[in-house]
Amino acid sequence: MKRLLTAIAFFLTGAVGLSALDGEGFKTGEDLFKRCIPCHGRYANEKPMGKDKDISRLSETEIASKLRAYALGRSEGAMAAQASLLNQERIAALSVYIANMHARYGEELFALRCSGCHGKDASKSAFGRSGIVAKLDEKEATKILRNYQNGSYAHGSTANTMKGRAIALSDQEVLELARYIDSLNK
Ligand code: HEC
Ligand code: HEC
């Protein structure tokens, strides 16, 4: 019951701040989302059955309202089969999870693999050589990380250190990190 109330509270307030994010609601959403992975992908950004619908870019409110429409049977497509799964509590948990998973994974990845040199909120210059990563938007961060990977970006003699870190990242990790960096206060 507590979980239900928390989920509904999120649903109603549309609270998205990570610190305010309820761990258990997020976890429920994560479990429910396993049913969605075959079509939408682990990170919710694959094309479901070839349709150009990247649900990882939708806000929590948009996801909830689309899922509510499916739950009400306003669909003939693939999502109609999901309607029976979608009660209000589950819609709330799924929306919280889908809308926040990127910020959370990006934050975890950054804390684990980047913050040692760039600071907790990407607010430090690494070795006094790099710019402040938190100032970059998603596009800039993606481009720079790719360019470190292919060796075409460098401030100077410290570039190889960063190149090694960048090469160790998968495409999906670059995407998650860039989205996280974009989300930091500018
Ligand atoms: C069998 C494949 C399949 C599964 C499983 C599936 N989806 Fe979908 N989903 C689709 C397709 C295809 C669309 C595109 C709309 C359509 O044609 O029905 C879609 C559309 C959506 C949309 C609306 C996207 C938009 O921008 O309009 C949301 C939100 C969504 N799905 C969430 C989910 C969630 C959450 C789950 C798990 C509970 C899920 N889907 C499971 C195939 C699937
Ligand atoms: C061992 C320390 C270290 C770690 C760990 C590290 N970096 Fe760096 N980073 C640096 C240094 C040093 C530079 C400047 C390199 C140069 O000379 O070009 C840099 C530069 C950057 C830049 C370019 C900023 C600018 O000035 O334009 C970005 C973006 C960046 N790092 C992101 C990351 C990310 C994301 C991670 C985690 C996957 C990470 N770094 C991990 C040391 C590190």
Topology:
Blueprint: H1 2-13, H2 23-33, H3 37-40, H4 60-71, H5 88-113, H6 115-118, H7 138-149, H8 159-167, H9 171-183
The structure holds heme C (2 copies).
- Under CATH at level 1, the class of the largest domain stands as Mainly Alpha
Helicity range:
55-70%
Task: Pick out the low-confidence regions.
Answer: 4-20
CATH topology of the largest domain: Cytochrome Bc1 Complex, Chain D, domain 2
What's the SSE pattern?
A: HHHHHHHHH
Structural class: mainly alpha
Mean pLDDT: 87
Structural domains: how many: 2
The number of strands is 0
Structure, described:
The longest helix has 26 residues. About 9% of the residues have low confidence. This protein folds into 2 domains: 98 residues, Cytochrome Bc1 Complex, Chain D, domain 2, CATH 1.10.760; 70 residues, Cytochrome Bc1 Complex, Chain D, domain 2, CATH 1.10.760. Helix 7 packs antiparallel against helix 9. Helix content is 55%, strand content 0%. By secondary structure, the chain is an all-alpha fold. It contains 9 helices and no strands.
What's this, in brief?
With 186 residues, the protein is mostly helical.
Features:
Cytochrome Bc1 Complex, Chain D, domain 2, 186 residues, 55% helix, mainly alpha, 9 helices, binds heme C, single chain, elongated
